[in-house]
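Before relying on records like the one below, remember that each one covers exactly one chain. Contacts with other chains, cofactors or solvent are not represented anywhere in the record.
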Amino acid sequence: MHILFITDNFPPEVNAPASRTFEHCREWVKSGHQVTVITCAPNFPKGKVYDGYKNRLYQTEEMDGIRVIRVWSYITANEGFVKRILDYVSFMVSAVVAAPTVKKPDLVISTSPQFFSACAAYLISRMKKRPYVFELRDIWPESIKAVGAMKDSMVIRLLERIEIFLYTKAVKIVSVTRSFKKNLVNRGIDAQKIHVVTNGVDLDRFQPQAKDAELVKQYDLEGRFVAGYIGTHGMAHNLETILDAAEIIKDMPGGDNFRFILLGNGARKVAIKARAESMGLDTVIFIDSVPKDEVVRYWSLLDVSIIHLRKTKLFTTVIPSKLFECMGMGIPVLHGVMGESADIVVKEGAGLLFEPENSEALCHNLLKLKNDKILYNNLKNNCLAHAHHYDRKQLARKMLSVLKQVIV
């Protein structure tokens, strides 16, 4: 089978869409299938092309047996609605133009969050008379409204009509959560064609390990209890909650024994960093995104991982992929997301829940895990015992079985 995958995020980018797509495609190649990916020059989230790449009209490379075609797009930082739409639309057009260079795919698949990649996949599928599959990672454009980036308007309603059209035309929809499936079914999409394949973790990379000694020394973490957030610093994440928790703990007896690491980039990074400086939070350490091969070193620094999203109904339907990376490494989670992902944390005993945007509740749980060694070790052991339920290899095979149904 020849799979043509359309995505505007792909390694060396390290965000969740890039990792999921690459790890699935890699496993499909290992299973004997041919995979071609059309993507753009790596630039997320700063809007700057990575070293070693150029924003050319067309260039190719091979990654772990995957043929990667990179096309030109309008590149901008992960901020500003209009500029991001230009980014998405330009990639859509370039992907469609590049598609004739891909010979005889058996199917075309695209991945959200934004659906202009799906628009490209649909158009390419019509050109090549092949079935098209929609991988649903986010309910977009609803998520635009959820983070306050744009209010309900004629533009949003137009985008929602395109969204429904793409769901309707897809032969199969692969959703990363059951909540997303329920959302689509309630909006009239056929439940029989929607399959759930959750996010997961590459257990070959994310394994328990001792804290990286060099980084511990670099950031003066010896003897500290380290809590961290690793991921995009965007509007959806409201990382100010972590800053408020750090401020509360700093003034407590023994507060200097805590350190907070915020690793990543995004639309809110500059503002969050400036706020921390204005609050005098010398216990908060900001680190820019690091290459994919280096990420595990930084995960190793954490005693607990903080996962947080804004308090909004839409985010009760998402499952942050970093949850599974924490489990793979045996790092207990402080989970500030309600809904389906919280159910997983409780089911697997992987951490403690706290109300989103409630910094005092976050502080309470931080102190609890630092002081209760028995509870901490139980959560750590649960993470390691249940991580295999979300092994990326198994999930890739599950998704592959869905794709095989398309071409029977």
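Residues 81-98 form the longest helix (18 residues).
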